[in-house]
Amino acid sequence: MWTQTTTNDTIKEDSIVEAIRTQLKDRSDVGIRKYNTTLDRTDLSLLDWLEHAKQEALDFALYLERIKREVKEKGLD
Questions:
Q1: Do residue 15 and residue 32 come from a single domain?
Q2: Which of 2, 31, 42, 57 could join 17 in a cystine, given CB atoms 3.0 to 4.6 angstroms apart?
Q3: pLDDT for residue 7 is more than 90
Q4: Mean pLDDT of the chain
Q5: Which residues constitute the domain of residue 73?
């Protein structure tokens, strides 16, 4: 578990890290149910993994562009 030292040297949980850990676990569970496999699978080549990562990155770029346009349209920039 990730911890954070506060100014008075009391150790407490890092809520941001814990939230991401929960999201990662939830995402893994969804993937296991949907695809009946994990990232431990060995049937993909390195190039296959790179292609999957590239496709995810391209989706991410699309989401960023969509958000950017809305920020501009609403004058939030």
A1: yes
A2: 2
A3: no
A4: 92
A5: 44-77
